[in-house]
Amino acid sequence: MKPIKLLLVEDDLTDQMSFSRFVKKNQLPYDFQIAGSVSEAKIILKKDPFDIVLTDHHLGDGTSFDVLEITPRSTPIIFVTGTGNEGVAVEAMKRGASDYITKDIDGNYLTLLPLTIETVLKNIAIQKELESYRNNLESLVEKRTLELKNEVHERKKIEQQLIEEKERIFVTLRSIGDAVITTDLEGIVDFINPAAEKLTGWNCAEATGQPLEDIFNIINEESRTPASNPVISCLKENKTRLLPNNTILINRNGEEFSIQDSAAPIHDGAGNPLGAVLVFSDMTKSRALSRELEFQASHDPLTGLINRREFEIRLKRALQSQKLSASHHAFCYLDLDQFKVVNDTCGHTAGDELLKQIAAILQSKVSVRDSLARLGGDEFGILMEHCSIEQAEPLANALREAIADYHFNWEDNIFRVAVSIGLIPINSSYNSLNDLLIKGDEACYAAKDAGRNRVYIYKEDDKELALRSGQMQWVTRLNRALDNDSFRLFKQTIHALSEQTGDHFEVLVRIEEEPGEYIPPGAFLPAAERYGLMPKIDRLVIKKTFKWLAEHPESLAALSLCSINLSGESVGGEWILDFISEQLEKYKLPANKFCFEITETAAISNLVQATSFISALHKKGCQFALDDFGSGLSSFAYLKNLPVDYLKIDGAFVKDIGRDPIDLAMVKSINDIGQLMNKKTIAEFVEDEIILNKLKEIGVDFAQGYFIERPIPLAD
Q: Which residue segment(s) compose the domain that 572 sits in?
């Protein structure tokens, strides 16, 4: 079989490679060349003839219409357009393109390519054969007519030849795969081939003499209204007509087929119209595949809701319409509360089922004109168009209540589910879609911070969201500081109020963004805790501290105890124990010279993990301090179960003991309980001599604060 000579005009290297791999993989009989631009295509087309040209629409130095202009009219050309460029495809067909294919993101359109090329070449071959037969027939008729004037015998012979030629034409029409119907000038059917019989449900004998409308019943796929008869238009305008791609043929039995169609006039030798020929083919499977690909590109495969990409398109459109017409729209950003509990307890299969059921609940509550999307993970978005914030708030609360009333059952487990919702009015204050999405995220997490299972309505000049926005900006700065190694270690002495034996200090951390300019931890630690960066910072502080002490043996020898803070997230992590053990072994450091400080809140919220972690490092010789002690509501109750060595009394009580007898009594009671449990006590925020003397009077073991020493670089 002779290979098909094909020219691909494509400026995208990825698409060129995809095409080449596809041809090779499927062993397609294509002898192809690739042109990366219109100008290159022009050179190649001048040099070599091709059986077919395949061109992308957008090219670096022009478009597919430029390629159409330089392609010989005898060479069929197929346009490749992007999704949403149906107008380009229609214009291409009007200008003489043979067909078009819609290009999707994943390259699945290539699977339609062989069938499309085969169909185009088959149609051209049929047209050429029909033209050849027609020309041959006309020539024979003219020649035989002249001879009939002289010989009756020759006339009979010519008549017989005409009959045979006509039979051959009908045999050809019956044999081709495309459906063919021919009509007279009035649109009355005079022939249909077997392929047309199969699609229409009419046999040739029954259809002959019937109006085409009775045989060829077509409608618009979207509106379901009758489509115009292409043969009538073809005969009226005396030119080829194409049906739109959304045309449906309803056959005699009520079956529906998606078709592509063209109608062309039939002329006699003098150019006078004789009727029309209608050629159409069944595109049901290819269009179903195309629709499926379009659906997958815009919808979430798990829930069937529109996906983030499609939602952002609609959100952007609403934002633009608001600026043009001052329309009222609202945007809901929803995040399920404690979804991770379901995943961790029952696995991701249960989590997926929960998401599908939540999607169904949301769908049952929103209006058909609202856009409901799964944005990713356990996050959903709702666009309420032509809806004020006052109208949107009751719906948002109705959604929250519907989910709060729902119980998720999985095997023997029952979970109560809740949702935090950020509600945002879409107005002219947003410069971009990204601004709107950020505010939605901030409002949603403000709802979580306020206690979860609630709706937070964003307002301009919102101080809470301004704080969150500032913390989100810190995330970038913190990651940059981690990447650039901009964290610096400081130390602050912990002074013994009886007898000092060796150096005892707490390691503190600062960020040096400019030489000699340090950012204190109070500026960035809240953001680091909120956005999960504390484990990275804890790792860095531990590693830097251990490394520095290993490199300065004189400081290590003088050291009595070095205190290092650990965040609650690190204490609850599985990695922390192995990491500290590995670092101690790596730098050959004595474990008994290190004390790890854990806040009371972190210890109580992770009591089991904290107890196990403390016990494991105790066995290696490490010590522990319970930081900010007294700030919790159940301090003394939990203290019995926490094997810590030191209590660091919350500075909020210490700083006023010189003038507030209640604070003094609180500090004294904490110290008494600590001493009773054989735990050393450390008072923070010692700012003056009066505080220091009070601490000595009540028997506190250690003092720490600016009166003792301000933080200094670890190296000093």
A: 474-713
